[in-house]
Amino acid sequence: MLPNSKISVALLGLYLAQAVPLYLVAAALPPILRANGVGLDVIGGLGVLLAPWVLKVLWAPWVDRFCHSPNVGRKAIVTGCLTVTLGGIVALSLFDPVKDAAIFFPILMAMSLSSATQDIASDGWAVEHLEPSDQPGGNALQGSAVALGVVIGGSGTLVLYDLLGWTQTLWVMAGLTMVLVLPFLNLPEEAGQRTLPAERGKPSLLRFLSVEGAWAMLAFALIIRLPEGLVKALEQPFLVDQGFTLAEVGAISGGSAAAVGLFGAFVAAWLIRLWGLLPFLIFLICGRTLVFAAFYVAATSGTTQWMLVVLSVFDTFLRYIEIVGLFTAFMRFASLKQAATDFTLLTSATLLMYMIGGIVAGQLAEAIGYGPVFLSAALLSGIAGWIALILLPARIRSTQLTTATETS
Question: For the chain, which domains are there?
Fold first, then answer.
C-alpha cells in the first residue's frame, strides 16, 4: 500500500519539514501573540499570509521550468526555499513577539512565499516518484505529515514556549525541521523516479487547459470542497456557543487532527485500493452530507456535548480522508511533463473555494444563524458532490490506475 521504504521516509520527512514551520506560524503564533497582549486586529491580519498558498499557481510553471533546467531538480528548489524558511524562523527568534511585532510581518510573508514555493516543488517530486499504485499510500503519508505538523509545529511550539521561552523554542523547531528533511535530501534525485518524458517542453497553465478533460477536472476541483468551508469556519465558534471552553475546543480540534487525521489518512488509502476512487468519493460525499445535516439538527434541535464531540471528530476524519482521495485524483491527472504545475493548479482551486466558503459562512451565520448555514452546506454537499462526480474525467474515475504521462 505504501511506496518503497526510502521513498516513504523521504516523502514523510519532506512534508513534515514543510508542515512544522507552517503550523508554527498558523497554529502557535496567534495564541502566543494574544497571550502577550497583541490586538485581535493585528492577529486577524495574519490571514493575508495565506495569499501565497492560493496564488502559488501563478509561478508554478516557472518552478517546473527551473527544475527542468540542466543540473537542477526538485531538491534544489526545496533546499533553497527551506533555507529561507529556516532563516526566517531564526530571524524571528531574535525579536520580541510584542515589541517588534511590526518587524514580524515581512519576515512571515517571506516565509509564506518560500513555503508555498517549496510546496510546488514537493508536490512535483511526489508526482514524479509515486507510481499510480503507490499514490493513495503516498498521499496518506502526506496527510499524516499534515496531522503531525499540527501537533509538532502547533501544540509542540506552545508547550516548548511555556518551558523554554520564545528564542529557544524557535531554535528547537528550526533544528527539528532540518533533521526531518535529511532523508529527502540524502536520497538521490533519480532514486525511485518514474520514467519521465524525454521532451517535456515549456510548462504553462495554458498547456494544462489544452489537455482533454482539463476544464472538467478544474471544475471538479473548484466545487468539490466549497460546502466544507461553510461548516469548518463555523465549527469552533459553534462549539463555544454550545458551552465548550476554549481549552476543550482546542483539545477537540488538535486531538482529532492528530489521532483521527493519522488514522483517516491510511484508512483512505486502504479504501481506495479496495473499492477504487469513484466509490470512495461517493462514500466521502455521502458521509460529509450526513455530518453537515447532523450539525443542522444540533443547531436547531439541540444535542448533548458528547454528540457534538463525535460530530466534530468525524468531520475531521472525513476531511483527512478527502485529502488522500483528491490528491490521488489530481496525481492521476497531472502530466509528468509539468507535474508541479498541473497538481498545484488543482490544489489551489480547491483551497480557493474552501476559503470562499469560509468567508461566506461568517457573513451568513451572522445574518441568519448557524442552522440555515449548516442546512445549506448539507444540501450543497449533496448537489455539488453529485455534479463534481459527473464532471470527473472517465479515466480518473476508472478503477484502473492511469496517469496523464503522455498527455499535454
Answer: 1-189 (1.20.1250.20), 202-408 (1.20.1250.20)
Question: Are 36 and 97 a contacting pair, CB within 8 Å?
Answer: yes
Say how many C-beta atoms besides its own lie within 10 A of residue 288's C-beta.
25
Burial state string for 368-392 with b = 16 or more CB within 10 A and e = fewer than 16: eebbebbbbbbebbbebbeebeebb
Place of cell 470542497: 225
CA distance readout (Å), 354 to 86, 122, 224, 225, 241: 28, 22, 9, 6, 23
- Spatial neighbors of 134 by CB under 8 A, at least 6 apart, are 2, 3, 7
Q: Quote the CA–CA distance of 146 and 17 in Å, as a whole number.
A: 10
**What does pTM read for this prediction?**
0.87
Tally of CA atoms within 13 A in the half-sphere of 149 that contains its CB: 24
- Listed in sequence order, the residues at least 6 apart from 214 whose beta carbon sits closer than 8 Å to its beta carbon are 208, 333
**Measured in Å, how far apart are the chain's first and last C-alpha atoms?**
29
Integer angstrom CA distances of residue 61 from 82, 100, 134, 339 = 19, 36, 25, 9
Q: Write the pLDDT tens digit of every residue in 300-355.
A: 987 888 888 888 888 888 988 998 999 999 999 999 999 999 999 999 999 888 87
User: Look-up: residue for cell 516523502?
Assistant: 11
- What does the DSSP assignment read for 238-303? HHHHTT--HHHHHHHHHHHHHHHHHHHHHHHHHHHHHH-HHHHHHHHHHHHHHHHHHHHHHHHH--
Q: What are the tens digits of pLDDT across the range 62-84?
A: 999 988 877 778 999 999 999 99
CA atoms within 13 A on the CB side of 204: 6
Taking phi first (over 0 means left), then psi (-120 to 50 degrees means alpha), and beta for anything else, what does residue 276 get?
A: left
CB 119 within 8 A of CB 77: no
